[in-house]
Amino acid sequence: MLAAWSLPCCFTILLGLLELCRAQYEHLGYPHGYPQGYPEPEQEQYSAPELPPDTPRIQLRLAGDKRKHNEGRVEVFYDGEWGTVCDDDFSIHSAQVVCRELGYLEAVSWFPSSKYGKGEGRIWFDNVQCTGKEKTLALCTSNGIGVSDCKHTEDVGVVCSDKRIPGFKFINTMANNVQSLNIQVEDVRIRAILSSYRKRIPVTEGYVEVKDGGKWKQICDVEWTKHNSRVICGMFGFPTERKYNARVYKMFARRRKPSYWDYSVNCTGNEAHVSSCKLGHAVAAKANSTCGGGTPVVVSCVPGRAFSPTPMTGFRKAFRQEQTLVRLRGGAIVGEGRVEVLKNGEWGTICDDNWSLLSATVVCRELGFGSAKEALSGGRLGQGMGPVHMNEIECSGFEKSITECFFNKESLGCSHEEDAAVRCNVPAMGFQERLRLSGGRNPNEGRVEVLVERNGSQAWGTVCSDGWGTIEAMVVCRQLDLGFASNAFQETWYWPGEVSADPVVMSGVRCSGTEMSLSQCLHHGPHLTCPKGGGRNAAGVSCSETAPDLVLNPQIVEQTTYMEDRPMFMLQCAYEENCLSTTSSETPASSHRRLLRFSSQIHNNGQSDFRPKAERHSWVWHDCHSHYHSMEVFTHYDLLSLNGTKVAEGHKASFCLEDTECEEGIEKRYECANFGEQGITVGCWDTYRHDIDCQWIDITDIKPGDYIFQVVINPNYEVPESDYSNNFMKCRCRYDGHRIWMYSCHNGVRLSAKDIGPLMSNIEVVHCIPESTSASQVASFLVMTA
């Protein structure tokens, strides 16, 4: 009897201990705290609110100058009229009620004082006080509906989460005014129907389906327009739509009975998201579900050139930006970044005054992406250099280029702290499903594991760490949508992954940095070569949401250049640090070396501080100059002939990375004195003066003539940055044997022989212009001399 009782008792105790163990290790980076294979906790399911009979029937929407679709001014529809909500007594609890009533999982924040612009009409609610658990805003305590002493300068706005409530169902309480309501559904998708499209990545054609009440439903095409298709395609990362073979889909619809949504859709075509479109007429579906003689809505979208699928092999190309008048810089993933515009041959930024989702969508479509997911302001994705070309932009949403939008040409005074940026919708390529990080302390770090075909089945394996560096790590973090790489590791013994994934499945990986997935990088084929093997020696990464961005000020170089003949006996320390040309070893102490001197002012325009890769305990002490080197090579200085041949060079070790000066309101954090911490703070710059050792190129042996001067910061990519393309600066240089001139200095890509070909004949270099470029765009191009 005792044994019979003790068995279930012991079993119960063991279960309890198992729960304690599981709770102890919930922080180890498994999704939702659960190891793979464990069932996830059930998600909250939507249930239709049961309201008291005397509750005012209202509908809500988010309106105004929005910078993403899930935010805006709170507007209330009551008694046949749209109105607003006053910010008096409003709180995050009230915002929670608003967001959940609109079908979002929760509120993120709220803003007073008409942040999203002043509304019109009545102010329906004032002194709103909610607990956060009310089913509708009408149940919160207030002065009473329509009772307010506020003005529209006090209109409140909210920001809701991206996630929708599972099972959310739109309930219309305004049967007679349905066409004034915005679309509210749980989710939207394009479902490939034809077999020729089911295996394509990305999915570009199929039924448009909405998820309402937990069920996927088709939309009747009776009132469907091209504008609606344009909005849907933009949401899924495609710049435009095209015609499709309707006859095939009619045949399919006859074979399978559709399940239609209750409403039609009414978009103007410039919306960034379907939630900004209006509800159309209620669909009077017949008993045979023919939706009044129509069929389910089908869209066929045109992907940007970089995302165009190819038969069988699908997407193979690395991302290459099409040549346009606009580019994105400083973003962690493809389709996001600071907006820069080419004007008069010079790249500049856009001021964020009046920057909206509408204008951002024009930029995204112009670059071959879909509509804008978010319009960012305040230099959120780093600050640019050079001029601010455009301000107070107003677009209709149908322009082919942001340069066609109206902007205030007279408005001045914007700084780079106000640089505008975008996050665009890009096609779902499925890259994240073929790569993972394993064994890390959090989801942002770990051993890199790749899913590959092996013996007819798919298996996970590691990446050989030979030659693994920052550029490769950047591609991994981009593919997993984890931001920028903060470190690249060639040993991962401290991150034990699954033993079954220890074997190396990819070796010889070399990336250019523009790839969207690791498989697009150069790598060995089926014949792998990895002497160290996988397991503890496999490649690893750690990722970060932010990164620094170093940019050299070209004007300072141009203004401070001069030539000096310096006696050899004064250059002994520089000689020991290899800052002179090789012929200096034969120069007697009584002779001199001719030096091209200049100052370097290096700004950190990124989103995090620039810190040397090496820890302080490993910095190298140099007796001659009595300082520590935190990076052996921080900059390269090259003098090139017009055919790209290097004729003289210099280099600069980072003997002192510190904040020389900072922008107003930013405090210095790094100072080299007394073995202090080294780095460059965001918004600060480090100046290497022209009169310090090694801040030169030894030009003793070069002949008079025309040359190209080039500076490369962080040349070995030791420290991750958000944008390496602006680490290069180049100038035209003329030397007559007695004097030297530096001119036309500008930031740009590293010069090679193929880049310098046009310079040899001093011909004009004309930017390539796409065939579709309008006359007004062509007028904006400037023929640039070398």
TrEMBL record:
One of its GO terms (cellular component) is extracellular space. Disulfide bonds join 86-150, 99-160, 130-140, 267-277, 395-405, 511-521. GO terms for molecular function: copper ion binding; protein-lysine 6-oxidase activity. Its EC number is 1.4.3.13. Residues 60-161, 190-302, 326-425, 435-544 form the SRCR domain. InterPro entries: LOX-like_protein, Lysyl_oxidase, Lysyl_oxidase_CS, SRCR, SRCR-like_dom_sf. Residues 1-23 form the signal peptide. It is an enzyme of class 1 (oxidoreductase). Pfam families: Lysyl_oxidase, SRCR. SMART domains: SR. It comes from the Eukaryota. The lysine tyrosylquinone cross-link (LTQ) is generated by condensation of the epsilon-amino group of a lysine with a topaquinone produced by oxidation of tyrosine. Coiled coil: none annotated. It catalyses: L-lysyl-[protein] + O2 + H2O = (S)-2-amino-6-oxohexanoyl-[protein] + H2O2 + NH4(+). It is found in: Chromosome; Endoplasmic reticulum; Nucleus; Secreted, Extracellular space, Extracellular matrix, Basement membrane. GO terms for biological process: chromatin organization; collagen fibril organization. Its cofactor is Cu cation. Keywords: Basement membrane, Calcium, Chromatin regulator, Chromosome, Copper, Disulfide bond, Endoplasmic reticulum, Extracellular matrix, Glycoprotein, LTQ, Metal-binding, Nucleus, Oxidoreductase, Repeat, Repressor, Secreted, Signal, TPQ, Transcription, Transcription regulation. PANTHER family: LYSYL OXIDASE HOMOLOG 2, LYSYL OXIDASE-LIKE-RELATED. Mediates the post-translational oxidative deamination of lysine residues on target proteins leading to the formation of deaminated lysine (allysine). Belongs to the lysyl oxidase family. This is Lysyl oxidase homolog. It comes from Oncorhynchus tshawytscha.
